[in-house]
């Protein structure tokens, strides 16, 4: 359940819109009409996200924002502005506001921006617990591993977290780099300041610079107002640059300067902006090799590689496979209201024989699929999907889905959940296709599909499909 605090004296119209977008009982919207009441609410019952009008009867929205930040800088604050207060909204972004929306509110933007803020807040606030020993409570943010290599990684996380220097996290896709970055952040001196994660490979090259550094009005066609970038917005906090190996060389130079001097210029601007951000870079590529080939700046590589955390691939983690399988089984059992507690040794043997190119993410998906088919409380080998075929996809499949072939393959006398697994298979193709069609527009996609946006989001998450908000509130979401 999301808890949204609305601080706005226009309680009739705006409140109605917010309630429409975030209906009870799944959501709780608490409205207050003054800054003082809002601050009191944040103090006594901290919300997940705050919508704050810039114009309030008792004090300015910016003053209220400063006080909220002092209480907890991690709660995302989205400003509500009228056209005349847009400049102040930009000022608020410079001070770390999450985003801003114009009145009258556009319901889709409201939904997208608040939805994204909730995801960001969850990343910051749900604690990543490093689990070297106990593993079977299925807790959502547990970072599980008992193998020697994972214990080394946990130690490295502990070692680098406290030092206020850049960190480089390496590991194949699905090995837990984002979890590691969150753990570093949460154990650092900046843990009470914001954390933003950005996937450099998912953002078109032409937009990435502006996303990170912002731009001035008129910097390029369509830049009709100044935009504050992530490095300015997140000053005091931590930024995860995921897939940094995919960053264009020109932009790497700008990152290097930021690391050396903590300064930069917005795109199309001359003003030197000062910031104070800790960078956690992550990559599935071999940056040292890329640097040797001239495809990654070696000076940036050496700067980033002072503190490193390496996450080994699942196939090299020995005993972790069983531990993680039980962990995900406990989690999925809870999620689907089943009670499958044990894994048959033959099922584990089959899992061990596989090479796991998609690593822990793939295992998580396989266990979920197996659980959906399971009956009784032991996970038997015939509940497992065909390994390699059922690997999660993060990009839309190009060849489409042969649903008839899928059903023929799965239709056995022992199948118990063919309805669910077939629908999941269909979702893997359908959802990305519809989002592609709507250019990442969630509201439109949900409307076309005829399902609730929240349902669509949770389905995407369940399938391991990540949706990232790319640019600003004015623009769209897109599929990674
Ligand atoms: N050791 C672990 N314990 C529990 N869950 C894990 C572990 N490692 C990964 N996961 C889960 O696997 C999924 C993928 O992890 P994560 O997104 O951190 O990987 P990644 O290396 O950043 O992947 P990518 O490079 O594709 O972005 C997430 O759902 C995460 O919670």
Automatic annotation (TrEMBL):
Residues 143-372 form the Sigma-54 factor interaction domain. The modification 4-aspartylphosphate is found at residue 53. GO terms for cellular component: cytoplasm. SUPFAM superfamilies: CheY-like, Homeodomain-like, P-loop containing nucleoside triphosphate hydrolases. CDD domains: AAA. This is DNA-binding transcriptional regulator NtrC. It comes from the Bacteria. GO terms for biological process: phosphorelay signal transduction system; regulation of DNA-templated transcription. It is found in: Cytoplasm. Keywords: Activator, ATP-binding, Cytoplasm, DNA-binding, Nitrogen fixation, Nucleotide-binding, Phosphoprotein, Repressor, Transcription, Transcription regulation, Two-component regulatory system. GO terms for molecular function: ATP binding; sequence-specific DNA binding.
